[in-house]
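Reviewers asked in the last cycle whether our approach scales beyond single polypeptides. To address this, we selected a multi-component target totalling 501 residues and predicted its structure end to end. The input consisted of the following lines:
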Amino acid sequence: MTETRHITHWIGGKPFDGDAARRGDVYEPANGRVAGHVDFASAAEVDAAVAAAKAAFPGWRDTSLSKRTSVLFRFRELAAAHRDELAALISAEHGKVLSDAAGEVARGLEVVEFACGIPHLLKGGFSENVSTRVDAYSILQPLGVVAGITPFNFPAMVPMWMFPVAIACGNTFVLKPSEKDPSASVRIAELWAEAGLPDGVFNVVHGDKAAVDGLLHHPDVKAVSFVGSTPIARYIYGTAAANGKRVQALGGAKNHMLVLPDADLDLAADAAVSAGFGSAGERCMAISVAVAVDPVGDELMAKIRERVAKLKIGPGDHPESEMGPLVTKAHRDKVASYLDSAVAQGATLAIDGRETPVLGGAGDGFWLGPTVLDHVTPEMDAYKDEIFGPVLAVVRAGSYEEAMELISANPYGNGTAIFTNDGGAARRFQNEVEVGMVGINVPIPVPMAYYSFGGWKDSLFGDSHAHGMEGVHFYTRTKAVTARWLDPSHGGVNLGFPTNG
Ligand code: NAD
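The resulting structure, written as structure tokens, was:
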């Protein structure tokens, strides 16, 4: 028997020592082993975390900007120094390869770096003499206790879209990470403590719907940031808003890549394979549909085949592995079910990932190799659903207009990309497409930390995208002050509506 780990909450600056009535299994997807058990929070444990965050708020809110920033800088240095350790935790529980896991930590750290500039970002406005010897100014103040609820696919990066900005703004934070890969968040909490963050400013509660509902209904939680699938995002948005909270809820995706006949097809095929199968397609910015405009479909398919044939599939810590397993057996089986349904509905199974060899052997791991479905049409389930696995659908379109109509009609609007050498076509695409994040000859890029992240339509509920200036606005509220200091010229009582003079 190999040892299993016990993962518990982090409340008030230390691990929470309680008896959980419910626990979840945490797997190692590469071999199917249960590697640990994670405590599931009840309403009482959520309450304890929110109470710790509430108690820490007055002190943290009034901590000077330079002190807050120095804690952020120390956290940035510690997280960078422990990047490989965080990557190993992520890779073991999620399955993604180590370099990919290290990459998500690096992208998350960019948001910490952005948040280190908080003194500048929190500057309000000041207008002198809005009326005679009267000044007006604005102050950006934190909200209080804010919560983050995050998905399994980026256990470090997605929480890092939220808490660096929230904490830098002076809020205190309760994170409810995915129960499938919870360990990175606890290690992050330890690094915050080592960086000198006061106890209670950053807390972690684990669990499922019960923990989430505890946060959504808690009167002391002022704002909720969510990232996950569309049905849950819709539920979070509705419930949190009905309880009077500020909410941003980022949902699922079906990202199309449009390949025009004049595109560099080698570049386009590299992009389709990299963004289709990186992290086994379990990325919200993965390309799941390639739309090839006639007549390039066959040539693009040939180039995709060549590249997929060379991909090496294996455990995340295998030095040659480029793609790992899926996160759970249930998810693997659901993803694989689309292969049969697509064929039954008329698609061509061009590459069958069920036959892909696994470095070191498949054992009981949750494996599915890169799969390509060709001649997919919009009525098929493999087109309509977010599969969230290593399945690339290729759709043939007769013209740019036909392809554009398909992309803009899709209910999801997270990311899209166009591959072309025609600047005019690219410009028209960026102008017309009904999608929130666009790549031009770049396979669906995650925007830099100073450009906020978020999709349109069913990919985002709420009006704020994550991080960047939109994050600063989301985690603060503005106070407008009009001030007059005693001056002999003040005019005495006046019941008229104040106007400027
Ligand atoms: P999920 O929606 O199943 O879970 C997300 C979070 O919600 C988890 O913390 C989970 O515990 C919680 N949750 C699950 N069911 C719940 C319920 N019934 N009530 C309350 N809370 C519940 O998502 P996932 O499978 O962990 O992650 C994959 C999904 O996330 C994909 O749809 C992907 O597109 C999406 N995603 C979107 C973005 C984005 O930026 N738009 C980024 C990453 C992932």
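The chain has two domains: 5-251+459-480, 255-440. We regard this as preliminary and will revisit it once experimental data from Aim 1 are available.
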